[in-house]
Amino acid sequence: MSEGALRSSDLLAQFKQTEARTRTQIQAAELLDNTVDEGDVGNLLQVTGCSAELRKPICQSDCLSNRYRSITGECNNRSDPRWGAANIPYSRWLPPEYEAVWGIPRGWDPEHTYHNVSLPPVRLVSQEVLFTHNDNISLDSTLSHLLVEWGQWIDHDMVLTPQSSSTVSFRTGADCTHTCSRDAPCFPIQIPLSDPRYGVQSCMPFFRSAPSCGAGILPHRQREQLNAITSFVDASMVYGSSTSLASALRNHSSPLGSMALNSQHSDHDLAYMPFLPPGEAINHLGMIALHTLFLREHNRLVKELHLLNPHWSPDTLYQEARKIMGAIHQILTWEQYLPRVLGESAMSLLIPPYEGYDPEVDPSIANVFATAAFRFAHVTVQPLVARLGPGYTTNSQHPHLPLHHSLFASWRVVQEGGIDPVLRGLLLSPAKLQTPGQMMVEELTERLFQAQGGMPLDLGALNLQRGRDHGLPGYSSWRRFCGLSVPNSTSELAVILGNFTLAHKFQLLYGTPQNIDLWVGAISEPALPGGRVGPLLSCLLARQFRALRDGDRFWWEREGVFTSTQRRHLHSVSLSRIICDNTHITIVPANPFSRTERPEDMLACSHPLIPHLDLSPWKEPDTGEEVRTEKYGERGYQLCLFLH
Ligand code: HEM
Ligand SMILES: [Ca+2]
Fold first, then answer.
1. pTM to 2 decimals?
2. Which residues contact 548 (CB under 8 A, 6 or more apart)?
């Protein structure tokens, strides 16, 4: 995608692209949503196509389905096979609070009042509270920008909310990118008088998230939104969440069970991802680097596994590598990412040690997590994408880039030195520090998608509008939900936020703490000791990550998923090692999520603190045909092999 070729709203749609199965469900749900006939419900579901979408999947209980996750996440939970699967509605921890029946979003009618006051325009909140000049930022003293990127990477493993399949008003056919009138699915963001953009632009386009089919039956139908990918941390951003995409991403002629690679370009002698199927665009340089890295890691793993087990079929190699990749993502996230985000003490309090699989726990993503809580890291993103050459030096072939020039710029990877410069930049740059006066950089509030032409969007305003679109209750309700004190006045809010100026701004904008949009309220709380988020975000994030662990039948620590020796080896997994093994980078930090100030503080890839993942416990004796009569070991490998 070249710069200057597309409208920003098209690019936002690209950010949220989904594949065939999701589109079918959205179209069915939108048809249902726009049908006012309250007659025969069964018939209505049938005609719209929703009844097929609501059917319960049938689960197999053979060796393969006990051994490997399904691609769609279905049947992870045996009694509720849709839990955590792709294309199911987000769960709700608090009931939605829409403006009116049929899921009219909050703030649809600017005059509508909540607790006797109307909601401020989201763009005004962004201007008043979030806006931060690119050069007015503080750096995180202990965390690297790779940690920030890791957050976005696993976000893409857990959350993808499709927007409406239509970009024009259902009623009038007006183009959502040009209209300033609220007419579903268009929910444009109004530009306030005080805005420098006033006069240039009267509204920023916004499309409502698509409704889901599975949200109750008339007349009690409640609008719910859909998660298009598996909620489990299972590396679904590498493998896909639908069988058709998973198949398209594989190299079917490989005897090793490899993933498909780009046949036209390579990174010196290393591989790139293939050109993706339409709609699978990856959105910025950091993400492209991680996608490429883990694609290579899969192909490296299958090669090693093949050397250990030459008798394994391509499917077994693919599945075993996929299983290891899932474990790597779980380990890096729970052991290395979350403690740094939540802080060690909040982490051990809110996510106590693993005690085994609990089939009663719903691992589906909660609406509030997707729409507000896990967007917390938008305020820790640096405005500049650093790119560094060998030895971590700046290089004129690939200079640092303003963030907006790194969006939709996969051509830069191919033409400007491969993924190594981007990864080196992420390893050596610190994260941005969130402070009450320095929230979201102007690259994100003023220039989102600007380089690609058209009117720039504002990520802060999008986050707030999305919360209203999804009917998220306000700040106070979530404080109450988490058992935290509920502020009743500006001074009580000032105590919680530890900042009177900010509390006063909120008072002027919202009138009451109850109405504060959750995302902006939550990111305004000061961080707990050792962490980067306040009490409300800690509660919401920990609750989700705990459910993703305890409710996952294939959690890496669960007895029987791996052997104890395999677990021990996996436990020492190192992201720096993965970088060493799959790039031309030769010096790396021992802890890549911690801030490294100088290249001299890094270690050679051969250093013992950058341990190899020893796969020897995956070696299995090739007992050939005789195995049929043998008793199967705790892992049941052989039985599955014979199914291939
Ligand atoms: C370069 C950095 C980033 C950019 C440009 C970016 C951009 C975006 C955009 C445009 C959206 C869609 C907004 C909407 O219409 O509702 C979004 C959603 C989201 N972002 Fe980011 N983001 C970045 C980094 C991150 C990070 C570091 C995290 C988390 C740690 C994160 C978490 C999320 C989540 C959870 C969503 C909701 C996704 C969905 O519901 O489909 N983002 N981001
Ligand atoms: Ca997933």
1. 0.93
2. 84, 158, 231, 232, 233, 363
